[in-house]
Structure formats: C-alpha cells, structure tokens
Specification:
13 helices, alpha/beta, Rossmann fold, binds S-adenosylmethionine, single chain, seven-stranded mixed beta sheet, about 280 residues
C-alpha cells in the first residue's frame, strides 16, 4: 500500500541539468551498456534507474544505438501506427498552450513532441524531467537545433518522487508514459503529478485507450500477445479506469480532478485527456 503523500517532505529542487551547463549534455557516459548504468547507481539513490526501465525497456530508452534509431520521426510514427502527428497535435492543443503557464513534462519522449510543446508554449516556461540522462541529452539536442532551449529546463528526476513543492506548476503532462509503468509506479507518478499541479491547473495525459471487445488490435490474440511482450505493463493500463485511478490518486493529495476534454485516435486505441485539478 502507499503512504499518504498529502504533506510530503519535499527535497530542494535540483539544479537543471543542461540549461546551466549546456556542454555537459555531450559528455554523459550513460547509454552503453545499460545494465552497467544501473550497477553504477547507488541503491536507494533517488536518481537510480527504476528496475522496470532497466529490465524491460533498456533496449528502447537506455541503449545508445537504440536511442539514436528510435528518435527518428518515421520510426516513432510507425510504432504508433501512423498516429504520431495526431497524438502530439492533440496533446499540445489540450495543453491550451497560450494559457498553460509554468508547464511540466513528466518524462521525455522520442520524436518532436518536446519541440512542438516548447514552441507552442512560447513564453510559458517548460520543464522536462526524465530519469535517463541519455533521454535528456536527446531532448537538449533537439531543442538546441531549433533554438528552443532558452525557455526549457531539463532535469533528471524520477516521476515517482518529484523534487518540487506542492502546487509548483500550472500544467503537467505525460506523453505515453503511464503504460510503461508497473501499476504501483503508475499510481505514484500520478499522485506526484497531481501534487505538483496547483488547484485550477491542468493535467494532460496522452495514452493508449482502454481495452475494448471491438477494436481489432484488442480482439486479435496474436496482436494482444505482441503488445504484451513489447509493452509488459500495457495490458494493466488497458484494464484500468483512468478516471477512477485519478480520483483515487487525487484523494491522496487532497485534490480532485474533473475531466474537461477527451480526444480519441485510431478508433479509441489512443487517447489524449485533459483534467482540471481542484482542491478538495
Ligand atoms: C514517456 S515514455 C515515452 C514513450 C514513447 N514511446 C515515446 O518516446 O514517444 C519513455 C520515457 O520515460 C522515461 N521514464 C520511464 N520511467 C520514468 C520515471 N519513473 N521517471 C522519469 N522518467 C521515466 C524513460 O527514461 C523514457 O525517456
């Protein structure tokens, strides 16, 4: 069970990784071999790579050749069945970027979602956290290329224990993160997201939709098996009522959520939902 995080002890906010020392991004030793990264990191360290990431996703997010391979627009678009543009456009639109205020992106992502968000947010500051240095390095390279790094802070942090005080951000969003987290981590990450968004602010979630009996990708056993192999925690998200989970997580933080907008893609296989966060 989870400890009540309604009044969490929040450590000092760590210095941003890259904006202050841009060249540092070029020299990160992480990426190969991923398992060595995990061994090098002290146990219990808040910055330790989570076990699920090292065990199930090293090949996708930690191994440098794979990071290079996947971070190409056609590749990432193929992985999401041609829905990448719709997913990112809907995510950015539901951020209501001109009024988003100080915005937190919880976990980096491949493709141009970060640069799209940074561009749309304009003067609204964007903070991106990720636990994997190589992912922050990629984000920095993409932002720098487009001259968008000025208003973005990249910080190494675990989504399950954000080092920000409560109500620190106006808006937070997760782009295809929740389905990659085991159930307890998913719950912790949502509790943390709700904790750091101020009452009146918003949380935007881009994710796989819930399981249906009619969608071909859900119905065909072979496809279900492939999805389950590639994304071991996706089936648990398919069978989770996201509204109910957020309500439960809100209770832990003394907040409640009101779903304001639901956008579906690929017949409900993907979704982008926007929640308003309120004080109970
Ligand atoms: C947000 S998902 C994005 C997946 C999607 N396929 C994409 O790239 O478009 C993957 C990212 O989440 C990060 N991540 C996973 N667990 C995390 C955690 N507990 N805290 C912070 N970042 C995490 C990984 O390092 C990786 O960069």
């Amino acid at each position: 069970m989870y400890e009540d995080r309604s009044e969490p002890a929040v450590p000092a906010i760590p210095a941003p990784l890259f904006n202050t020392v841009p060249q540092q991004g070029k020299n990160w030793p992480y990426g190969i071999p991923p398992r060595r990264v995990a061994m090098d990191t002290a146990a219990g360290d808040a910055l330790a790579l989570p076990d699920y990431l090292v065990k199930h996703y090293w090949w996708a997010y930690l191994w440098r050749p794979a990071v290079w391979f996947f971070d190409h627009q056609p590749i990432i678009n193929t992985i999401v069945f041609g829905q990448y543009r719709k997913l990112t456009e809907n995510t950015v639109r539901l951020l209501h970027p001109s009024q988003a205020g100080s915005t937190l992106m919880i976990a980096s992502a491949y493709g141009n979602v970060i640069t799209k968000a940074a561009k749309a947010l304009g003067d609204n500051p964007l903070t991106v956290i990720d636990i994997a240095p190589i992912q922050l390095e990629r984000a920095q390279v993409k932002l720098e290329k487009l001259g968008l790094d000025g208003n973005v802070t990249l910080t190494r942090m675990n989504a399950e224990s954000l080092a920000y005080p409560g109500d620190h951000f106006d808006t937070a969003f997760m782009f295809l993160l929740l389905h990659e987290l085991p159930v307890p981590s998913r719950r912790k990450a949502l509790i943390e997201a709700l904790r750091v968004v101020r009452p009146g602010g918003s949380l935007v979630l881009a994710e796989y939709g819930g399981f249906t009996k009619s969608h071909p990708f859900h119905r065909v056993p072979l496809l279900r098996w492939i999805f389950g192999k590639a994304e071991p925690f996706l089936p648990s998200l398919w069978h989770t009522d996201l509204d109910a989970l957020l309500t439960e997580c809100g209770e832990v933080t003394g907040k409640r959520v009101v779903c304001e907008d639901k956008v579906w893609m690929l017949g409900g296989f993907y979704r982008v939902w926007r929640y308003r966060v309120e004080q109970v």
